[in-house]
Every structure is written in structure tokens, then in C-alpha cells.
Amino acid sequence: MPPAGITIRIRVRMSARPIDEPHRVSSQLELLFDLTFVVAVAAVTAEFAHSVAEGHGLAGLVPFLQVFFAIWWAWMNFTWFASSYDTDDVLYRLLTLVQMAGVLTLAAGVPAAATHSDFGIVALGYVIMRIGLVAQWVRAGVEDPARRRTALRYAAGMTVAQLGWLLWLLVAETGVLPSFSGLPFFVCLVVLELAVPRWAERARATAWHPHHIAERYGLFTIILLGESVLAVSRGVAGAIEADGVKGPLVAVAGCGLVLLFALWWLYFLVEAGEGLSGRRDRSFLWGYGHYVIFAALAALGAGLEVAVEQSGHAVAASPLAIGYAVAIPVGVYLAVLWAVHALVAGAPVVRPAAAMGCVALIWALPLAAPWLGVAGVVTAITAVCVVLVAVSIMTAAAVGRAVARRQSPQVVES
After folding, report:
1. How far apart are CA 202 and CA 199, in angstroms?
2. Distance CA 262, CA 378 (A)
3. What domain range is 269 assigned to?
4. How many structural domains is the chain composed of?
5. Which of 39, 102, 139, 155 could form an S-S bond across to 128 if both were Cys, CB 3.0 to 4.6 Å?
6. How remote is the C-alpha of 15 from its chain's centroid?
7. How confident is the model over 328-384, as pLDDT tens digits?
8. Do 356 and 335 contact (CB within 8 A), yes or no?
């Protein structure tokens, strides 16, 4: 017998977990799994920062988005499966280990994919991850008769999509039918990947837990914000080594931290778990929309790294390009965050006029880079986001008071 307080799950029948399971939170295994994505995101952010610093930000954008899609989609697949079928027994843990090995393999292939469009190692990592996840879905199909068709559809759809990726890689390597090796074929495979869950869920919806999903997405947001902090620290180290501590360095680094804090504040203004509970039909748009949010945060980390770095020594990128490397991700983040919040929030906290007005202003600010400098542009962008946070807090307080008044019992005088 194991010691008191220790539970060892050797074998647990895989069945759908209740969607209203109380106190459902991320497991220790999910948190460990997320650590492998810290490595992958750090690798793709560093490569994109290198492209921006060399003045090739636009050229590096497509490889960045391609590799980041692979990272995000791998995390998505595991997260939604675990929300429905986490048994935490020995087999489940071992298959999760296989997926973690795939993520680390993918991360090792990021430099070659970003600089030479060589996706061989990335594809190998994806194959390893898919082996573990398809095995999980097959197991769910065998052990959960009520959702067998759904689970087997997931397994079949992922297998077909993976064969498509291998074909894309093979054609790219051999040079046969070169049109297949380009961006259009990649986009077609992305559409196929995104369509698999919609097709599989038509048989019967999986039993994902809304509060668990919201927490998982919030944790991944924090991971990406943490990667941006790491990117800023890399830029600070490079700038100090080159030219010591100077005013522009302090301004950009300090404002970068405040900017990330403001974006964190805006994300967690809405309790997504409550919204998803009553609007499960909007989960696809909500979940898929986060690709843009997550990619914007990763790109912002690269932009901030270069902005800090240029304060210590010269880089090939112009102040205008560096300003837009910060402004574009921030604007995209704010616009899509508002749309994602609107899908699940009962009342808007970030007003559309305020959000879009801030986006327009932020995207215009880099034009002043020749006069303000990069430090001035980053400071101004930060100030706009801080004002948006303040306005949103006041809006949230007003909405809360209005809801409280509606819910308070009416006193009827007889």
C-alpha cells in the first residue's frame, strides 16, 4: 500500500470528465508540459528579433508566423484534449512525455526554419507530438463509447493532416512541383488543421471544462508575457555590454515593463470561464482568436528586445522600423483582445471606440520616430495603453455597479 496521502493511478478508464467539475484547475503535469513551450517560444522570438535588428523584419515575419502556428497548435491540441480526458494515470503521463519530447525537438528546429526555411526538424518534432496525441485519441475512442465517433474522427483527421505536412516537406526538399512547397500549400494545411476539430465535434461535443480552459489560456498568456520580459532582459544585457547604462536604455526598458503589465491587466479584465460556461458555441472563435493574441505577444517581445538593444549600440533597422516592430503587435493585440472578450463577456469592459482609437494612435506614433526617437515612441505607446487600462477599469466598475443594481431585490412598499 502507498503511504497515506499518496495516490498512484496505474490504470484509469478514459471517460469524459464532467463539464461542471468543481475546483478544476491545471494539473502539475500540464504545468510541466507548458515548460517545454517556454523553450520553443523563446527560440522563435529570438530568431524574429534577430531578423528585425538586421532590418529584415518583413522577411522574417512569415517564417515566424509559420513556426509559431506549429507551437500554438501543438499546445492547443493537448490543452483541449486534457480538459476532456485527463486521467493522470501511467499511460496518460507517458504519452504526454512523448508529446513533450516532440515540442523540444520542434524548438531545436526553429533556427533552421526561421533562417533557411528548413522545416525538417520542426516536422520531425510535429510527428513525435502527433504520435502521442493520436494514441490518446484512439484510447479515448476505445474506452469512451459515448464519444467514440468524435475521438476517432480526431485521430483520423490529425493523421491525415500530418501526412499532408510530410508531403509538403517532401516536395519542398525534392523540388518537385515547387508550387506545393510555398505559402499557399502551407495555408491549405493550416485550414485543414483548423477544420479537424469542427468536423470531429459534429459527431458529439467533447466535455471540456470552461474554467479549466480559461485558466490554461491565461497561463499561456503569462508565459508569453514572461518571454517578452526575458527578451527585454536580453536586450538590456547587450546594450549595457556595448555602451553602459544610459537614459534611453532606462526609458525603453522601464516602459517596456510597464507596457507588458498594462497588456496583462487588460487580458484579465474579463473572467473568460464564466463567459465560456454560457457560450460554449463560441469556443472555436474564442480559442482560434487567441492565435493572433499569442503571436502578437511573442512578436512584441522581439520588438522590445531590439528597441532596448538599439539604445546601446547601432542596429541595421531604422528607428521607424523598430517603432513599428513594437506598435504593430500592440495594436493587433488590443484589437483582437477586444473581439475575443466581446465573444464571451456579458457586457463590454473595453469599449470598442476606446480600443480602436488607441490602436489607431499607437500605429501612428512610429511616424514620429525621427523626432522622438525609439525611446520616445515606446514611451508614448506605453502611455496610451496605461490610459486604456484606466478607462477600462472605470468602465468595469460602472458595469459592476449596474449589474449589482439589477440583481438587488426590489423593496416593494405595501
Report:
1. 6
2. 13
3. 210-403
4. 2
5. 102
6. 28
7. 999 999 999 999 998 988 766 778 888 999 999 999 999 999 888 999 999 999 999
8. yes
For residue 83 the three cell numbers come to 480538459
C-beta separation of 316 from 53 below 8 A: yes
List, for residues 3-40, the tens digit of each pLDDT value: 555 566 788 888 888 888 888 889 999 999 999 999 89
The candidate with the shortest Cα–Cα distance to 110, out of 36, 214, 7, 171, is: 36
What pTM value is reported for the model? 0.91
pLDDT at position 322:
93
DSSP state of 312: T
Same domain, 34 and 178: yes
Q: Are residues 191 and 245 in the same domain?
A: no
Distance CA 243, CA 250 (A): 13
pLDDT at position 143 over 80: yes
Phi, psi (degrees; rounded to nearest 5) at 269: -70, -30
**In this structure, which amino acid lies at residue 328?**
I
Residues 130/162, Cβ–Cβ less than 8 Å: yes
- Per-position DSSP letters for 222-259, written without gaps between them: HHHHHHHHHHHHHHHHHHHHHH-S-HHHHHHHHHHHHH
CATH number, domain containing residue 365: 1.20.1410
- Give per-residue pLDDT as tens, 223-234: 999 988 888 887
Whether 106 and 187 share a structural domain: yes
Q: Are residues 34 and 155 in the same domain?
A: yes
Whether 102 contacts 127, CB under 8 Å? yes
